[in-house]
Write a structure and sequence with these properties.
The structure holds two protein chains of two kinds.
Chain A (H helix, E strand, L loop, with lengths): L3 E4 L8 E5 L4 H22 L2
Antiparallel strand pairs in A: 1-2
Chain B lengths: L2 H4 L3 H6 L1 E3 L3 H22 L10 H24 L10 H14 L15 H24 L17 H30 L4 H9 L1 E3 H7 L11
Antiparallel strand pairs in B: 1-2
Classes of the chains: A alpha+beta, B mainly alpha.
Chain lengths: ~50, ~220
């Protein structure tokens, strides 16, 4: 899994950083889902 | 509290309503929500495969969001109670006591919050940082496109500098999705419904105020 996106330099040098990797998008969605599920579970347990 | 409990009777509501959000603040919240959702949709739908001409709507909505954020900052500093949203010592103490209770430890009960509880303040701080990062980097990125108002000039920064601006914009935008998910989850929870209702109608009942808030920490007005 890559953190960044790169493009090839038109001058033939090293790759140029062009942004964040969109492969990470799903992990941010997963993080939100994890927080929601954890909070709902803790609330369900502590409110008994 | 259940949804039915939150839907208080007209008699109770009429007998004591505490103003929580002015109309201008509710309007700000919903226009900002529309802007953020439009920006996320125009940013990420093309990435996940729904191709359309997204750039025009994205940058114009971004300019509107930037103006809204500027208005909000000025309003919060000059006309609103700026410190009501800042985390203070009582919030830290209450947060620690809440955590101790969740972990099953005994100890002093957490006190009631003022207008906003510590998690709401923490959330606001987080989303403020993300939105400011997105706005600043987004405004810089406007230098890379032609618009009716200006011509593009991408040469003000080097390639690697633009790269980092896009990195920050992208990471903050993806983190915003996480934050929006959490925000909508809390807005839909029945035990938080009074707060969601107050973002539509502007008020909570006096009973809700007394159950959930410390009147020493929130000098609320009736409405």
């Amino acid at each position: 899994m890559q953190l960044f996106r790169y493009s090839t330099s038109i001058y033939g040098g090293s790759d140029v950083l062009i942004g964040a990797s969109w492969d990470l998008l799903k992990w941010f969605v997963v993080a939100g889902a994890v927080v929601i599920i954890l909070h709902a579970a803790v609330k369900a347990v502590t409110s008994r | 509290m259940t949804v039915s409990q939150a839907n208080v009777s007209m008699a109770e509501a009429a007998s004591g309503r505490i103003r929580r959000h002015l109309l201008v603040d509710r309007a700000y919240h919903w226009v900002m929500a529309a802007c953020v959702l439009t920006l996320l949709a125009t940013a990420f739908l093309p990435i996940i495969g729904y191709k359309f001409e997204w750039l025009g709507l994205h940058w114009t909505t971004g300019v509107v969001l930037s103006a809204l954020v500027l208005i909000h900052i000025v309003r919060a500093v000059i006309w609103q109670d700026f410190w009501a949203m800042m985390i203070d010592g009582a919030d830290l103490r209450n947060g620690w006591r809440h955590l101790a209770r969740v972990l099953g430890r005994n100890g002093a009960a957490p006190g009631l919050p003022g207008k906003y509880n510590s998690l709401q303040k923490l959330y606001h701080a987080g989303i403020a940082v993300l939105i400011l990062l997105i706005v600043v980097t987004g405004l810089l990125m406007l230098l890379k496109i032609d618009t009716p108002l200006w011509r593009r000039n991408p040469y003000v920064l080097a390639d690697y500098q633009w790269g980092w601006i896009y990195v920050v914009h992208g990471f903050a935008a993806m983190a915003l999705i996480t934050m929006i998910m959490i925000h909508i989850y809390f807005a839909l929870r029945p035990d938080e419904w009074r707060l969601t209702r107050s973002m539509f109608r502007g008020w909570i009942t006096r009973r809700e105020f007394e159950e959930h808030h410390d009147k020493q920490r929130w000098a609320a007005d009736e409405c």
